Amino acid sequence: MQYDWVIQAAIVAFLLTLLALVVRKGHRLWRRYSRCSVPDETVDWIFEGYRWFLANLGGYETFSNTRIVSEADFQADMTILEGPERAEKVFERIQAMMGIERWPCHLERNDAYEKVAGSETSTVASFVADGWEGRGVIRYRPTLAENLPELVTVLAHELGHYILGATGDDAPGGPTMEEPLTDLCSVFMGFGVFSTNAAFQPIIDEDVSLSDIVRQIRQPYIQVKKLAYLNQEDHAYALAISATLLNCTEDVSQNLTVSAKIRFHRALKHLRKDHLERVEHLRSIEGRDVRDKAHPLAHVRAAAKRQVRADDQRERLEQQPKKKRRKRFPPLRP
Fold first, then answer.
1. Is 187 exposed, middle or buried (CB count within 10 Å of its CB: 0-12, 13-18, 19+)?
2. 220-255 pLDDT tens trace
3. Cβ atoms of 125 and 144 closer than 8 Å
4. Residue 91: its pLDDT value, please?
5. Do the domain assignments include residue 16?
């Protein structure tokens, strides 16, 4: 009995030590997962992309009229229309929101883009600059019209190709970064909520129960669907820049999924701590607006015509009979 207090003190010391270890480990995990994990070079590229977009799309004065849209802006079209009519209506609305409704662009459904059973990947949509006709053509998978967030995300991305094609060749990152820059363009134009949510979509099989997930009997029971070239962390960072410039962080946060919302608030914290001066610099940028062009693909059309003329000239030269050269003999020496 005289050693009971020793045992009790040892138990208390053990519990306190265990609690200290748990708190220390939890603090490390909290610091690890509560801070923004976007690399510095990616942050620099995103800011450079925003500077480039502002310089070519009217500056901050024009950008300040941008509104970050959500599903509520398209619900009327989803409840009334179906199939191709729904896709056309959503497409026209996105064009108007981007300010390029005057640009000639045609939407086509392509059954060849349907996902083949058993395949891991398939084409969802594509953008083609028809230089001869001077217009853009977007081909999409027909089943895409059944899902509003995916439809808006994909069409906004493809129209971003149209804007980049009319802007020039001096884009940040060069040709190798065209697809990620197109993702960034859709965020800049006000569709960041859709693209950020679509950048990470976990899908669980319908016939998988909670016990299966806990026991890990079936593998794989969770798949990740991604409709973007940038990851969700990068999308959330760009969206945080837009929301900060437009002073609408609370409204944006309400329309994000759980994972997107966590990454969005991490990005906001990082911006407010380290990059407020860069955000303020974006507010001072002025520039031209390529959306004022009546024919954005005029340069593509001119290049296509030059190529056709060059091909015709080459074909005519190939069809002409070759003249035989007379063999010249050296002069005879006396």
1. buried
2. 544 555 677 899 999 999 999 999 999 999 999 999
3. yes
4. 92
5. no
Is residue 311 included in any domain, yes or no? Answer: no
| Tokens found for residue 326 | 């007379």
- The reply to whether 22 falls in a domain is no
- For the chain, the domain total comes to 1
Give the pLDDT score at 73. 85
Residue 149 structural domain: 39-302
Q: Answer yes or no: is 294 within a domain.
A: yes
- Assigned token pair, 52: 């480039």
Predicted confidence (pLDDT) per residue in 71-98, tens digit:
888 876 666 667 788 889 899 999 999 9
Is pLDDT at 206 greater than 60 in this prediction? no
Residue type, 202: P
Taken in order 41, 44, 50, 53, is the CA torsion positive or negative?
A: negative
Question: pTM for the whole thing?
Answer: 0.75
